[in-house]
Every structure is written in structure tokens, then in C-alpha cells.
Amino acid sequence: MKQVGYFFTFIIVYIFYFPFKILPYRFCLSYGMFLTSLIFPIAKKHRKIAAENIRYAFPDYAEEQVLRLVRAHFRHMGILLAHTLWAPRMTREWLQKYLVVDAESLNIEEETKKQGVGVVLISGHFGTWEVLVQFLGIRMKGAGIYKKVRNPFVDQLLFKMRSKNGIVLVPVEESTTVIKLLKQGYWVGFGSDQNAGKAGIFVPFMNRQASTFVGPALMAYLTGAKLLYYSVLAGEKGKVVIRVKDLGFVDKKLFPEKEAVLRHYTELWTKTLEEEVRLFPEQYFWVHRRWRTQPPKPETN
């Protein structure tokens, strides 16, 4: 019976997905924003979550600014939806027309390629991150961490979409495979800014402590891979803007203990993400409960 339910859910998902398989790119962007404009009035729970997160992140904002940012965020989610479902159709020709990379970011990419090292490529739920999956497959020797979806039919569809342009997808549980790929010179993408629960460490992010995965820093520590941070932003007229920050190699001599080194680099990439979010706040994924896990309160006598 559960399989029947999964299948019907898959049919609904595919009906929403199908237009993005056939419609022109710019039309897909408009269609995505149209869909989220329909969702906005009824998404009371997610509007409330977004507003609450924004109030913490920007305590100086007036309520009018908070609500305006919530609305701008939902408009951006329409673009994110369109890019996510259209991205498997990406080609090199499309990249030449729509990809915008500043000179500094391009130089970081080229210098890293010359070094021939593995790359821990860190991004977040920020901008239009699903484009990065296809981008990695086309422009780099790319791999990505993949978390399976419970619905097997939807999972198969998403896996097929994400691997369309040659990226190697690794299940999140297979850390040894990630290590092997990094040592072979792959650029492995990590979207590690979700709530890590009890598995993470607490680092400051947008005015609150956030439980954060140490996976990216640990993989760089174990393999000698380089740490690069990527923002993949939705620009004007369908453009996609790439911003790259070079976070360097893990310096094991920086602190005497491994845990201290991992904390330093986890705080470094988290701070870099925060700086980018403050520049383009409407493009952060405010509707997810990033700060759900909080440090235990100190005991009182």
C-alpha cells in the first residue's frame, strides 16, 4: 500500500516537473515564479518560519522590512524551483550565454585546476544551488554528496536529473568513497548548512548558534584537498552569477588538536556563507529550520 502512495506522489511531482522539460528557459523562470506566487498566500507556516529566522538574523529590521524580505524570498524560490527542474537541460552553450564569473573567481578556479588537487567545494542552501550540481559535471571533474529521498520513485527521478551532466553522486553515508574521489583530484560539492542536530558542532551563524556538520573540514583535513566556497546566485535576465572564495588548505599545525582545527575551518566557511547571505539576503533558504537545534541551557542552582 505504501508503494501505491509513493507512486501517486511521484505522478503529482512529475506533472509539475514536465513543463520544465519542454518549455524555453526564460519561460520556465516565469512559470516557477508564478507557481510560488500561488503558494505564497497559503504557505502560512513557512512564511512564519522565514519571518522568524529573518528577525533573528536582522534584528534592526522594521517589521515592514521583514515582510518585504519574506515576499522577495518566495519570489526567489520560484527561480530556484525553475532552475532545479530545468537544470538537467544545461549545456556548455547555455553556460556561455548565461553564466557570469568575475575575474577574481575565474582566476581562483584556473589556479586551482593547475594545482591538480582535490577540492572540497562548499556551498549552502543559498542562491540557486541545484545549478551548481550540473555546473560541476560540465566544467570540472565533479562529484556531489547525495541524500536519498524516502520515496523511491521520486528518488530515482532526482538522481537521474542531478547526474544528467556527468557528475558523480555519492550517497551521504559513503565517506570512504568521498575520500577516494578527493585524492583522485575530484571537486566534491558539499551543501553542509543544514541543521546537524546532535552530530554537529555549534558555530555562530546569523546572530545565533547553529549546529553545523564538520564533514567539509574533516574531508579536507584527511585528504589535503583545497577548500573553496561557492555562491551560485540568480542574477538579472536569467543570468547565473558565480562568486568563489579561496579558503586555502587545512593547516594541521594551526592548532595542537584535530578538533580545534576542524572547528576553525568550519567557522571559516560558515562566516564566509554569512557574509554572502548579508549581501543577497533574499536568496537564502529562510524557510528551513537551520537553528532548530540549540546548545543546552546552563543549569541553574
Detailed description of the structure:
This protein is of the alpha/beta class. It has eleven helices and nine strands. The chain has helices spanning 2-22, 25-39, 44-57, 63-86, 92-98, 103-115, 129-139, 152-162, 175-183, 215-223, 258-279, and strands at residues 99-101, 119-123, 142-146, 168-171, 187-191, 201-205, 208-212, 226-234, 240-249. The strands form two sheets. It has a seven-stranded mixed β-sheet, with helices on both faces. Helix 9 (175-183) crosses helix 10 and helix 10 (215-223) crosses helix 11 (258-279). 37% of the residues are buried. The mean pLDDT is 93.
Strand order of the largest sheet: 1-9-8-2-5-3-4
Can you write the helix and strand succession as a string? HHHHHEHEHEHEHEEEHEEH
Low-confidence parts lasting 5 or more residues at pLDDT below 50? none
Structural class: alpha/beta
Oligomer: single chain
Kindly provide the radius of gyration, computed on alpha-carbon positions and rounded to a whole number of angstroms.
20 Å
Basic shape = globular
Biggest sheet features: 7 strands, mixed
Mean pLDDT: 93
- Determine the fraction of residues in helical runs and give it as a percent range: 40-55%
Q: Find the count of extended strands (DSSP E, 2+ residues).
A: 9
Q: Which percent range describes the beta-strand content? A: 15-25%
Distance from N terminus to C terminus (CA atoms, Å) equals: 53 Å
Helical region count?
11
